[in-house]
Amino acid sequence: MKVSFGCELTYRVAAPTVFILNIEAARIPAHAGLADSLRSNPALHFTGYAAPPFDNRYARFLAPPGPLRIGYEGSADLQLRRANPAGIGEVPIAALPLELFSFLQPSRFCEADRLANVAEKQFGSINPGFERVTAICNWICSNIEYKRGASNPQTSAAQTLEQRAGVCRDFAHLGIALCRALNIPARFVSCYALGLAPDDFHAVFEAYLGGTWWLFDPTRQALLDGLIRIGIGRDAAEVSFASMYGAAEPDSMRVFVTAADPAAPSRERTVDAISTG
Amino acid sequence: MKVSFGCELTYRVAAPTVFILNIEAARIPAHAGLADSLRSNPALHFTGYAAPPFDNRYARFLAPPGPLRIGYEGSADLQLRRANPAGIGEVPIAALPLELFSFLQPSRFCEADRLANVAEKQFGSINPGFERVTAICNWICSNIEYKRGASNPQTSAAQTLEQRAGVCRDFAHLGIALCRALNIPARFVSCYALGLAPDDFHAVFEAYLGGTWWLFDPTRQALLDGLIRIGIGRDAAEVSFASMYGAAEPDSMRVFVTAADPAAPSRERTVDAISTG
Amino acid sequence: MKVSFGCELTYRVAAPTVFILNIEAARIPAHAGLADSLRSNPALHFTGYAAPPFDNRYARFLAPPGPLRIGYEGSADLQLRRANPAGIGEVPIAALPLELFSFLQPSRFCEADRLANVAEKQFGSINPGFERVTAICNWICSNIEYKRGASNPQTSAAQTLEQRAGVCRDFAHLGIALCRALNIPARFVSCYALGLAPDDFHAVFEAYLGGTWWLFDPTRQALLDGLIRIGIGRDAAEVSFASMYGAAEPDSMRVFVTAADPAAPSRERTVDAISTG
Amino acid sequence: MKVSFGCELTYRVAAPTVFILNIEAARIPAHAGLADSLRSNPALHFTGYAAPPFDNRYARFLAPPGPLRIGYEGSADLQLRRANPAGIGEVPIAALPLELFSFLQPSRFCEADRLANVAEKQFGSINPGFERVTAICNWICSNIEYKRGASNPQTSAAQTLEQRAGVCRDFAHLGIALCRALNIPARFVSCYALGLAPDDFHAVFEAYLGGTWWLFDPTRQALLDGLIRIGIGRDAAEVSFASMYGAAEPDSMRVFVTAADPAAPSRERTVDAISTG
Known about the structure:
CATH topology of the largest domain in chain A: C8orf32 fold
Largest interface: A-B, 31 and 31 residues
Oligomer: homotetramer
Low-confidence stretches of chain A: none
Helix content of chain A: 10-25%
Mean pLDDT of chain A: 95
């Protein structure tokens, strides 16, 4: 499926400010034929960096005082992996690749350690594997209210569980924390997403099951097979869309994602397991 | 300086348990001629993994029920880099290597975001660079009581600041959080350390200043030029000495570190800047 | 039912220490014929105070350095009010006596404000009244593990909900917070309790329903019709058994409660609504 | 000094809503000749309650859907007690009236227990008494930024200490928590205040020293001898200006306070100890 995506961000810069953006689509095989461009007005020099191991693309630049406009546009042929979720199990700790252990650890916004008992009591007896992570997402979708303004950039999974409200980032953090608490590696994914209304940046998560990282969206708002991955991180701290060091204020933001073939995706929500890997 | 070090850990294993240990000294140039061995009783098969980018050495094994003894012994010729701290400055954000940005982010136990105002008000006007990080360490040493039992494995920097008490791990977390809040990259270092009484595992931190990672120990308990690095992480979550998945209880722990040349280190505390890098 | 009760507390006092005890049974009509005595060894002068509006009995004394033994013994004929819980409803805010409004407010250990959404989502659609408070207690009993050492004197209801473990005090705090979040006045009750094994001080709570304060014990450990009330407070902060100002350490504690008539209480748990009021 | 004061509050009521207001000046001797009136438009029936032991005046009414306007106006001749702060000491625990002990306990927004070590390390060695409480207020005024929007109704003293920013309510909570942590009884005071710009409700605190409750304002914004007391509570939870049960939104708020004699108060800030008691 051919997808076009991008964003336009404007800022009011009061003093020279270093920006670090993570808004470019990842250069991964799932994004076949990825073509994109990042521009600013005024035209500034960008330093790019594809951070291993996920090749998140960071762009840094120094903005002078005044209005600033960032434009990003891209297109790619989305080639996702699909599978039947039935039979996708958990990988026992004894067999888990050791490089994945950091995705079992608690992180700033995913306090898996604090939620260990909640996870065990609520999901400990559910069949391990895809079914259990689906149960976690279902629970989140039913029990956490999607509510703009209910959270802030310091809100963590434990707080979201208490407040019972949040946005996509909070939903993903809670899903990740609960998975890790059950010894399922999980990580944060920032993305462009088909199906959101209105268009916006989106956040979902991946859980490592049956030897593959599978996508999960506890908000149930986007099309799981219509996600263009931007960054992967332990949590949102590592894949912030825009970090600013100086004195600048966001002014406006516009995100757009469109399927080139209007018939696809059919607005039917897939029940397949989906992976970008 | 030739240093011998190691530990002996015993456990009571109630059911088959996966252990992941991070107690082996890092294979870095600073540890010249590193020779070591890890053994268990009963003898078990270890899977080793040197995790990039820091080559933390993890050893995984499956322990059967019963008593378990882990023994680790090593020796190395410690070759540290020394410098005059005067004139070691901070690296401006615009010039910071982009791969270091994750060490500016908040992590589970180092909530730099929550401590931003405290850091700014307390240390914002101090001369940037080595002097400022030293001021942070001095403040921690004077204002946080070193007290066993004051914290637990879930204690974070923000809590340590509130409780005004903790152990080496807490001191390091607080130092890291305050540095990051001031845009100084900082990371956690677990180690064997000369000078502790009694011998124990130790935790310090590194701050990135003047293009190098420098060691800091806000507890002022160990000799900064007598540290054998085990692991590096964003915080303690990534370099836990022993993670257990199953049913096992720690029984006893003994750590030992000795300088082969008894005259060295002179027990004079160095005022040099020290780096393992 | 005639009940005997009391406690023996010993301390090691290192320096002159002011003690404030709240271990004496309340002088209320439900404790008919209450006869009791409080003694110390060494013999010290007590200042007593029956604090309005609940007449919690506080005893203050200054203990010199050395060992200290506190003994309290009492007996009373327990005269409780019983009712059929069916049909005991909630009092609408518009009709609630204004002097009860402070029992709707959050307190140190009962953060009703933070748990408002949890309470609403979990219990908002249950029939108001005794049935709803019973549902809260059932949920707590099923989902919170009774576990000594899981909490400490600073643990609050929000933390208990997160940790899913605690002791009687934590169970009561969580019950109170959830009730208040649903606009049901609720308060903390410290007591001697028949049915505990082993004997210990106990904590339950009261909810104001149908114009009366009714007892609830989410631990399901004591006999609801075998409670000798000591203190009433917004939460445990107000009815601490022993507050010490100085330098003293608790040494041992023994609590005893016995029904004079061994046939009563039948060990059958009552399903009546019970009130001391 | 003759003072006029009052407020006008408007709401949009969406469904029948119970309001409980605590905006009327307390009927205390310090408010000599207090004359006031509370009205609503539409005209509603108020139920009044002067809550012991402080006689906070609560007014309850049921508002129908539609716009609602509350008007309160009063005047009084402010008769405050003044004293030389030198020599006002702390009352030892052994001599403290037992009815004041609840003002040593932690409350929802004043976690004195959590701040015990901070208080001891920061203020433990300062001369006890008025001087120490003044030092606490000076520290708060210098280290906490007065910033609208920095806090919300759930913000507590421990969070304010961490965030280093807040409004008058947060300043008072932090002052109270630190006093209680040092065994100085302290309580929250809501009031009308001369000297604020712009006029607004204000919050200060009282500490019990030398046998009297003395006023302290860590914001240093109002005139300490120009405060008209509304309510006294353990913290803000007990003296909320307006509690609403139903569906209503605040629309506008106007507060006014004027000294009838324009020459008084001289805008000189008093250095006397001031008490309403």
